[in-house]
Structure formats: C-alpha cells, structure tokens
Specification:
The chain has a two-stranded antiparallel sheet. The protein has 138 residues and is mainly alpha-helical. It has a single domain, classed as Winged helix-like DNA-binding domain superfamily/Winged helix DNA-binding domain (Arc Repressor Mutant, subunit A), CATH 1.10.10.10. It is 59% helix and 7% strand. It contains six helices and two strands, in the order αααββααα. Helix 1 crosses helix 2 and helix 4 crosses helix 5. The protein is elongated.
C-alpha cells in the first residue's frame, strides 16, 4: 500500500509546527524514511504551492495556513490526480459469462460513487484538523 499521503501529512505537520525551517533529513528521521523520499514528496508539494523553500536558507515552510489546506489538496498533490482512485477493476472478464459481461459498468458506477464520497470527506478535513487531533493526544 502506498504511504505517500500519510507521509505528506506527517511532513506538513512537522513543517507547520516547527519553530524553524526543517531539512529533509530532519523530516525523514521523524517520518521513518530516507531523505530522498522526503525530497520527492516535498517536490510534489512545492509544485502545488503547498510548501516553499527559501534560497540560501535550509529547510521548508508551509505556504497556506493549515486551516485552509484540505486533505484533498494534499492527496491530489502527492498522487498527482484530481480524483482519488481507491479501487481498480480487473481487466479481462469474460463476455461469455453474464456476470463478466456486466461487471465493469456495475463496479465502475459503484466505485465512482464511493470515490466521490471519499473526495468530499477529504475536502472537509484540513491539516489544522490533524494538528488539533494530535494536540489532544499529547
């Protein structure tokens, strides 16, 4: 399973809550991965104007306020897709079978509805919500 989304949220919380700009090495130590993976995520987030780096200064800062940054925006940034894809459909069902003949349109419609619901739920949650929940756990 892909962990870019959760790693990106972790990274953004660190950047948002840090008193100083953090380097990819510092972020990687917290996320539990390597700095090159974090730099890849940061590049994706930077392309979507979610974070920025400053010339001559080591580290990154959050561009929008955490309250205005939705989980959908983060998901889209690191997955490079507008609509979340949760499910895939097998490619070669038999047209000679009644189920095989109709399974793709049935599942496509159902999966699209579920993915739309997921997108709306992500759009309703923000990075600030994640930070707030984390603070409650401290």
């Amino acid at each position: 399973m892909d962990t870019k989304f959760s790693s990106a949220i972790h990274t953004l919380i660190l950047i948002s809550e840090s008193a100083k700009p953090l380097t990819s090495e510092e972020i990687a130590a917290s996320v539990g991965t390597n700095a090159s993976y974090i730099r890849k995520l940061i590049s994706m987030l930077n392309k979507k104007d979610i974070i920025e780096s400053h010339r001559g200064v080591s580290g990154y800062t959050l561009k929008p306020k955490a309250e205005g940054l939705t989980l959908l925006q983060i998901y889209q940034a690191v997955n490079e897709t507008e609509t979340p894809r949760i499910f895939d459909i097998h490619q070669n069902p038999s047209d000679e079978c009644i189920v095989g003949r109709h399974i793709k349109p049935v599942l496509t419609d159902m999966f699209t509805e579920i993915e739309d619901t997921f997108s709306r739920a992500l759009a309703e949650k923000t990075l600030a919500d994640c930070i707030s929940l984390m603070r409650k756990r401290l």
